């Protein structure tokens, strides 16, 4: 219980002290994107439009839809699976932000199919992880960990240690929700050990650990 309380306190303090800085950064990013959008075409335009979606998701979600629709229309017009997939993924994030988990999952699955066709391993992992998060929110814990373990296997093959740590934490969280404290601790320890190996101060904050 003490560990969980410490975790919540650290997250609260860290979030509270950085919120104004984050908001300023997002606005600066939007200003920069406005300039870029005037000069880019084709896939670069899609890329920029999707970055607008990401920025406005944090500041003004009502503006996301127009940028997303424009990006999706262009991606379909160009018939580029990678960018069509990225639009599906962004749509999934948008629906997730609104609490429409069923719609979010459908879009993530559509993106996953296209990324599988493209053999884009890292994005396949990202999609499976995102679907796993949705399964957690809807209480489907067995399905959630199935997604996280599949994601972990991909990240192990790619040797993406930071992403492996995220998976271990996610798996540990699911076991915790299921009341399996032994497995919860086991997987959180695996996550912590990777962060220590990487000397990742930022990632270690959630564990209440700081490397001097």
How would you describe the overall organization of this protein?
- The protein has helices at residues 2-37, 42-59, 64-78, 81-97, 101-117, 121-137, 141-158, 161-177, 181-198, 201-204.
- The protein is 83% helix and 0% strand.
- It has a domain at 25-119: Tetratricopeptide repeat domain (Serine Threonine Protein Phosphatase 5, Tetratricopeptide repeat).
- The chain is built from 10 helices and no strands.
- Mean pLDDT is 85; it is low at 1-21.
- It is an all-alpha fold.
Largest sheet: none
Topology pattern, helix = H, strand = E:
HHHHHHHHHH
Query: How would the global form be characterised?
Result: globular
Name the assembly state: single chain
Per DSSP, what share of the residues sits in E-state strands of 2 or more residues? under 5%
Please tell me how large the radius of gyration is. 19 Å
CATH architecture of the domain at 25-119: Alpha Horseshoe
Secondary structure tally: strands: 0
| Uncertain stretches of 5 or more adjacent residues | 1-21
CATH top-level class of the domain at 25-119:
Mainly Alpha
Number of helices: 10
Q: What would you give as the CATH superfamily of the domain at 25-119?
A: Tetratricopeptide repeat domain
Task: Give the terminus-to-terminus CA distance.
Answer: 26 Å
Structural category = mainly alpha
**What is the helical fraction, as a range of percent?**
over 70%
* CATH fold topology of the domain at 25-119: Serine Threonine Protein Phosphatase 5, Tetratricopeptide repeat
Q: Write down the overall mean pLDDT.
A: 85
């Amino acid at each position: 219980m003490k560990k969980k309380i410490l975790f919540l306190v650290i997250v609260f303090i860290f979030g509270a002290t950085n919120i104004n800085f984050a908001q300023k950064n997002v606005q600066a990013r939007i200003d920069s994107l406005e300039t870029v959008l005037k000069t880019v075409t084709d896939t670069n335009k899609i890329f920029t439009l999707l970055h607008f979606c990401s920025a406005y998701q944090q500041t003004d979600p009502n503006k996301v839809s127009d940028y997303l629709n424009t990006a999706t229309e262009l991606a379909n017009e160009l018939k580029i699976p990678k960018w069509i997939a990225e639009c599906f993924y962004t749509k999934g994030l948008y629906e997730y932000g609104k609490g429409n988990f069923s719609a979010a999952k459908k879009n993530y699955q559509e993106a996953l199919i296209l990324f599988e066709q493209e053999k884009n391993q890292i994005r396949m992992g990202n999609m499976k992880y995102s679907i796993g998060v949705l399964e957690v929110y809807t209480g489907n814990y067995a399905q959630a960990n199935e997604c996280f373990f599949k994601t972990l296997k991909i990240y192990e093959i790619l040797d993406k240690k930071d992403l492996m740590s995220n998976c271990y934490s996610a798996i540990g969280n699911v076991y915790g929700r299921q009341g399996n404290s032994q497995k919860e601790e086991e997987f959180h320890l695996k996550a912590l050990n990777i962060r220590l190996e990487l000397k990742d101060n930022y990632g270690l904050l959630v564990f209440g650990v700081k490397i001097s």
